[in-house]
Amino acid sequence: MKNVIILLLFVLASLFKSEAQTIDMQEKLNQSLSDLSQIRKSIADEKLPMVKELNLIEDDLLDVRLEYQEAIRKLDNRSLDLNNLRSEIKTRRDEKNYISNLLGEYIRNFQTRLHISEINKYNDIVNESTLAPENSNLSDTQIFSKQIALVESSVDRLTSLVGGVSFNGTAIGKDGLVKNGKFILLGPVALFSSDDDSLVGIAEQQLGSLEPTVMPFMDVKNVENIKKTVNAEEGLFPFDPSLGNARKIEETSESLFETINKGGIVGYVIVLMFFAVLSLSIFKWIQLSKIPMPRETDFKPLLNAMLYNDFEKAKSFLKTVKGPTANMLNIGLEHINEDNALVEEVMYEEMLTTRLKVEKYTPFIAVCASSAPLLGLLGTVTGIINTFKLITVFGSGDVKTLSGGISEALITTALGLIVAIFSLILFAFLSRKAKTIMDRMEKIAILFMNRTIRTTPESIK
After folding, report:
1. What is the pLDDT of residues 312-341, one digit of tens each?
2. Structure pTM?
3. If exposure means fewest CB atoms within 10 Å of the residue's CB, which of 48, 269, 428, 443 is most exposed?
């Protein structure tokens, strides 16, 4: 029971305490509601300006975003323009390099197309335009200006060449002396006349010379025409449609002595052999011509006399005939009473003597015909040796330096073949003539021996 009372007291105390707390909480709630109301009022009072400020900030943000987008767009456009500009710069740079190479090639071609007499005239402008790309102190504009200046000069040159152009300069003659004078350039032809009129002709370029070389004319009339034309800058002048090729071909023609001289010592030996063969052939031909050609009809009276053993008549007939055939028959008649074999031997001995005479010197001609090509081959070998010696010293750039050995190699071969062919023809001719004489002597000797067997008129029947 006591515990119940205590519990009730505790419950009552709790109720009183809860009510007090409830009152306190109500007061706090009211206070909180009042504070909330004030806060809401202050928030309501502050919200409108903040909304306005927020709207302003949002407007500014929108403007900034628009500006950002505009900046991005401009940046993209500028990047695109920059890329286009870079491509344009690369294209222009490529065009500049192409034009520079084209001008460089044009300058090189211009130098090669200049006449030798114009080199000094255009030397300065050519050097400036050629060296301009290598000068780092010059801008591209200055380089192009110097190159364009040469192009303009080349165009003016082409225009002036149509009607001809005159200018002063220097040239050299074949004696190597440099002369001051005046040029007239008409297309590819350059006329020159020195101030003292000692050197007049057509100016051309010679290998190894940096100065124009004047080729004079042999005709005095042509020389006078060139003088008048150069001095008056108008008139008549000799024109070579082959542009000097005809004169160059004419200069290659040489005399027989000059050709032989190029053959060297071997060439002279071959020529001496030729004259020896020619002289000996003429001598041999005269010698053989003096020998009477034996014919059967010429000795018919002798043969008829031998048929009747009329030796006296035969001897008297032989006194009227000359030559080795008559000598052979005389020897045969001297031994006619002896054995036929002995007669044949003595007559054959005379034939051998005659053969040695008629064939004398002809072997020398045959030897020359055989040795002439060998001498030509010897000259070829020595000429090639000399050529290689010159190549060792001077190189193979200048053909004229090597022409001496080449000429010796070819000319000696040609001379050797000519002499060999000529000697073979002469040897064949002389041998044939000598053989004809010996064959006819042998035929008459056979006829003579046959008549010695028939000694009676009945034997003829």
Report:
1. 776 667 666 777 777 777 777 777 777 777
2. 0.50
3. 48
Q: What is the pLDDT of residues 152-178, one digit of tens each?
A: 888 877 777 776 777 788 887 777 777
Residue whose pair of structure tokens reads 């020896």 in the numeric block? 276
